[in-house]
Amino acid sequence: MKVQFVNLPQSPISCRNLIGGEWMSGSGSEIKVHSPYTGHQIGVTTDSNAQDVTRAVRAAQSAFPAWKQTPIKERCRLLFEFRQQVMNNIEELSHLVAAESGKTVAEGKAGILKGLEVTEFALSLQNMDSGGIMNVSRGVSCEVRHEPIGVVVGIVPFNFPAMVPMWMFPIALACGNCFVLKPSEKVPLTMTRMAELIQKAGFPAGVFSIVQGRQQTVEALIDAPEVKAVAFVGSSPVALSLYKRATALGKRALCLGGAKNPIILAPDADPAVAIDGILKSFTGCAGQRCMAASVLLAVGNVENVINGVIEQAKKLVLGSDMGAIIDRAAMTRIENALNAAEKAGAKIVLDGRKAAKPAGCEGGFWIGPTIIDHANADMACAKDEIFGPVITVIRVKTLPDAMRVDAVNSYGNATSVFTTSGAVADYVTTNTTAGMIGVNIGVPVPREPFSFGGTKDSKYGHGDITGESAVEFWTDRRKVTRKWELQRDSNWMS
Asked: Taking Cα atoms as reference points, which of 94, 89, 60 lies closest to residue 203?
């Protein structure tokens, strides 16, 4: 079947920096962007150096005083117009996401809609109590305010070109900050287009900026004196490195890392619910998401469910049911992990390396659903993040055995359980150390206003990246205590 429904750009799209309301190229080397579907070039950008970064953050710093003084209802009015612009162009944006990240168009659209959900939460801030005031003593009142902190930075990964940026900038902008985004150099097309929509919505120059580039760009952004806070989503080693770099400079940092999410499959699970949930969790977005299940802790006799997952996974068609792997390096990494699993003694019962590529996409990067069985918890395939459409089955005798495997997981993004027993569900939700937990849900991403964030090596920094935690991250609490006249009586506060 030839993939025709993903609209690949006919000629490479130029992705430049947006600085002070003007589009300009970076000063470094050229970066070519290739579609995972075909391997063909679909875009081009340039590496930004320290001078480019300085120009961007100073433009943002110049815009900050006026933006901070803009009433929140006016800031949110522009944010609402941005939301409308995205909805008006959602088909185009969905195709851009798919073309550059390898997702299906449906997955691209779903990511945008999830990002808009966070945008809608940001819009609600204008109608929420941002602090509060109380008479704390005779003639004395205390008030708390959430004040923007200034120029802030978001550094985002390839796997969700629209959604992850929208986890960050709508709340940061609604709170009155000026935001500088560094997209992944692998997927700059979507946010370039989205930045045009931000401009069209009427945001003042410098309030939202884009700086394209690689590692040197990231380091220059973190080091810039004007930058007060850094948010990051990506792999755990990079997350930890950036967190240390930012906090050593006294900056606020929240850096989300990788995952090795287990699904605990209890013997009493509803087979239809479990098969559907497990399948969608490890194959959705070709497994290239931090909430994908990558370990199946099979408790007792659950052979019927495992066989059902295998049979349903065999039916998935690459290009229509499942997208591509981001690039050749990632595909090679996944293949090497499968080779290592076999050498370690595990059995590959469904091998995605043998899956048929879509017609017309032979030059792309494709791996089908892959299931590794009869692994043990010490194997690399059971511990290391593979970041592809691969799930490793570890068979255990009891639920406490499953929880012991869960407990030694160095990551803490998500844990799910499939069961029809409230007692089993309660046992798992009480004892897991993960930050996000699913009961009969394979991808337990919280809906707003419930926030997104993991634990252990899946997150460095305090709080979560969306919801009320994000408001705290992007603002300072200012406390005001007032007294207007001398009181006739007194207590210890007078």
From this structure: 60
Residue 7 within any structural domain of the chain? no
How far is Cα 161 from Cα 382, in angstroms, rounded to an integer?
28
| Cα dihedral: 333, 336, 337, 338 (round 10) | 130
Single out the residue of 351, 332, 364, 334 nearest to residue 98, CA to CA: 364
pLDDT of residue 139: 85
Strand, helix or coil for residue 390: strand
pTM of this structure: 0.95
How many residues are recorded in the chain? 494
- Which residue range(s) make up the domain with 319? 261-439
* Same domain, residue pair 247 and 267: no
CB of 97 within 8 A of CB of 288?
A: no
Kindly state the DSSP code that residue 447 receives in the 8-state scheme: P
279 and 161 in a common domain: no
Contact of 94 with 115, CB cutoff 8 Å = no
Distance CA(412)–CA(422), nearest Å, equals 23
User: What positions carry a catalytic annotation?
Assistant: 290
DSSP secondary structure code for residue 358 in this structure: P
137 confidence band (pLDDT: 50, 70, 90): confident
CATH, residue 321: 3.40.309.10
Contact of 414 with 437, CB cutoff 8 Å: yes
Place of tokens 């070709």: 286
Which DSSP category does 145 fall into?
E
